[in-house]
């Protein structure tokens, strides 16, 4: 990637699913600092340690599955049904999805929501000209933190990763 960057074929280098440790290890050897790290991030998996590291090193955090990927059959979690999110949504006259997206924006992250539904796409775009007040924003820290994209399929005796702790460098 650095060679492509040097040749002018890439304007920036991005990484994905890098833990705080892996990003730190990369910074030790990288000539070209990654511009962005794309990771799972939503109110139910806030990635506080990684967020702080990215802020302190000037690496942008981009949030995939910012709605917590509702409807994914193998995930028995629905971030949008968290009582604190629905409470804030009701107070602000917004939808739970908009509250989840706005939280990420207020954290300084970009968001990658996905929808096949026109109304929800419009709803998901309407998150830039309002904000969650600080007192309500603080309530979102109460949500139990659960990584949804755990990567269990990569854990097996042949894999270099023998446990989820190893895969995510303890950030599970
Ligand atoms: N880098 C990586 O390793 C990685 C991993 C996972 C995902 N991603 C990327 O992240 C993006 C989004 O991920 P994702 O699809 O897992 O999660 P997501 O955007 O959090 O959730 C998408 C789901 O939310 C529903 N939805 C969208 N807007 C909604 C709204 N306003 N209210 C209620 N439900 C709503 C969608 O259904 P409808 O279509 O019916 O609206 C869809 O089922 C994708 O582009 C994906 O490629 C990257």
From TrEMBL:
Molecular functions (GO terms): aldose reductase (NADPH) activity
Pfam families: Aldo_ket_red
InterPro entries membership: AKR, Aldo/ket_reductase_CS, NAD(P)_OxRdtase_dom_sf, NADP_OxRdtase_dom
Domain named NADP-dependent oxidoreductase: residues: 1-143
GO cellular component: cytosol
Protein name in UniProt: NADP-dependent oxidoreductase domain-containing protein
The organism's taxonomic lineage, starting at the top: Eukaryota, Viridiplantae, Streptophyta, Embryophyta, Tracheophyta
């Amino acid at each position: 990637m650095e060679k492509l960057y040097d040749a002018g074929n890439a304007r920036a280098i991005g990484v994905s699913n890098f833990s705080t440790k892996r990003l730190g290890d990369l910074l030790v050897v990288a000539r070209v600092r990654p511009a962005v790290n794309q990771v799972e991030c939503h109110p139910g998996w806030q990635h506080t340690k990684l967020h702080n590291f990215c802020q302190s090193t000037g690496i942008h955090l981009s949030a995939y599955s910012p709605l917590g990927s509702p409807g994914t059959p193998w995930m028995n979690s629905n971030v949008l049904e968290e009582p604190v999110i629905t409470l804030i949504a009701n107070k602000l006259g917004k939808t739970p999805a908009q509250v989840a997206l706005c939280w990420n924006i207020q954290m300084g992250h970009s968001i990658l929501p996905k929808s096949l539904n026109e109304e929800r796409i419009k709803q998901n775009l309407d998150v830039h000209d309002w904000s969650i007040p600080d007192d309500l924003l603080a309530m979102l820290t109460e949500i139990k933190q659960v990584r949804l994209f755990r990567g269990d399929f990569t854990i097996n005796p042949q894999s270099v990763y023998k446990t989820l702790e190893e895969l995510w460098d303890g950030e599970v």
